[in-house]
UniProtKB/TrEMBL annotation:
Catalytic activity from the UniProt record: 2'-deoxyribonucleotide-(2'-deoxyribose 5'-phosphate)-2'-deoxyribonucleotide-DNA = a 3'-end 2'-deoxyribonucleotide-(2,3-dehydro-2,3-deoxyribose 5'-phosphate)-DNA + a 5'-end 5'-phospho-2'-deoxyribonucleoside-DNA + H(+); Hydrolysis of DNA containing ring-opened 7-methylguanine residues, releasing 2,6-diamino-4-hydroxy-5-(N-methyl)formamidopyrimidine
Superkingdom, taxonomy of origin: Bacteria
Gene3D superfamilies to which the protein is assigned, alphabetical: 1.10.8.50, MutM-like, N-terminal
Annotated protein name in UniProt: Formamidopyrimidine-DNA glycosylase
The organism of origin for this protein: Streptomyces hygroscopicus
Annotated stretches, region: Disordered: 283-310
Assembly description: Monomer.
Matching CDD domains: EcFpg-like_N
Obligatory cofactor(s): Zn(2+)
PANTHER family referenced in this protein's UniProt entry, alphabetically: FORMAMIDOPYRIMIDINE-DNA GLYCOSYLASE
SMART domains, alphabetized: Fapy_DNA_glyco, H2TH
């Protein structure tokens, strides 16, 4: 599934090629693509026609297009799922095999927005915005935390939440209500850079250690953004259909049995929550198992014979 860098690359493409345009027509070619829109396909299309799109925005792995007009505070929320693509294509280009939604615009730019989704896990939906939210956050994702590249991300609150939760560090990094945008790939990369095992209890992280981890999360995501994200196959592309190249720079993810770039030890892969975790067994030593706390000492009870004699 695309993570923050991949979704941010798409958002930047939408900002450049789609924001500020007026919708002329919408075609929903597969009902599952709008299944999260309660009004159904016809209502979705009708409510978009004539609307002018604002600046594309993102929170974590979600992105949305607010409307730049005087009507109700609404926005189109996009979730790419595992294979969703938002493509800006010439209006006369052949339809993609898995084209689900087409959006035409009332201008002479000659391009249209297409939502293509092979596995139909993603989709578009129309939502009200959270009242008073300056970013126009759709109410459907109000529970999603800010991401580590967001200037408003609260590092102190993040550390406090880590210490309070009875969980492990990789589970925490993938918890989108705690920190958004981090998925399996970039969690493994940041943990490798931090020399932290994925099963390290969050309660053991000191403030400097959690700050160091956050720094590595930001580093790896910024590096991925610079080369368009990570593309293991043709399912993730930007709005122009181009793949990202960060796969070539991965230090941990997908490198089972290859030498660690720090110490030379063969990297390992372990099944983890229906996924895989990649780590160096030498640089990222697993946490020691908790030792049983000995029972509190009690005063010795005299034998029954001694109590009888007394």
């Amino acid at each position: 599934m695309p993570e923050l860098p991949e979704v941010e690359v798409v958002r930047r493409g939408l900002e450049r090629w789609v924001s500020g345009r007026t919708v002329a027509d919408v075609q929903v070619l597969h009902p599952r693509a709008v299944r999260r829109h309660l009004g159904g396909a016809e209502d979705f299309a009708a409510r978009l026609r004539g609307r002018r799109t604002g600046t594309a925005r993102r929170r974590g792995k979600y992105l949305w297009l607010p409307f730049d007009d005087d009507t109700a505070a609404e926005s189109v929320l996009a979730h790419l799922g595992m294979s969703g693509q938002l493509l800006v294509q010439p209006a006369g280009a052949p339809d993609e095999k898995h084209l689900r939604i087409r959006v035409r615009f009332a201008d002479d730019a000659g391009t249209e927005l297409r939502f293509v989704d092979q596995r139909t896990f993603g989709g578009l939906s129309l939502h009200d915005t959270v009242p008073g939210d300056p970013e126009g956050l759709p109410d459907a994702i109000a529970h999603i935390a800010r991401d580590p590249l967001d200037p408003a991300f609260d590092e102190a609150a993040f550390h406090t939440a880590l210490r309070r939760r009875r969980t492990t560090i990789k589970r925490a990094l993938l918890d989108q209500s705690l920190i958004s945008g981090v998925g399996n790939i970039y969690a493994d990369e940041a943990l490798w850079r931090s020399r932290l095992h994925y099963d390290r209890p969050t309660a053991t992280l000191t403030r400097p250690r959690s700050a160091e981890l956050l720094g590595h999360v930001r580093e790896v995501m910024t590096a991925a953004l610079a080369v368009g994200g990570t593309s293991f196959d043709s399912l993730y592309v930007n709005v122009n259909g181009e793949s990202g190249y960060f796969e070539r720079s991965l230090d941990a993810y997908g490198r089972e049995n290859e030498p660690c770039r720090r110490c030379g030890t063969a990297l390992r892969r372990r099944p983890w929550m229906n996924r895989s975790s990649y780590f160096c067994p030498r640089c990222q030593r697993p946490p020691r198992p908790a030792t049983a706390t000995p029972p509190a000492s009690r005063p010795a009870v005299p034998p029954l014979s001694a109590r009888a004699a007394s």
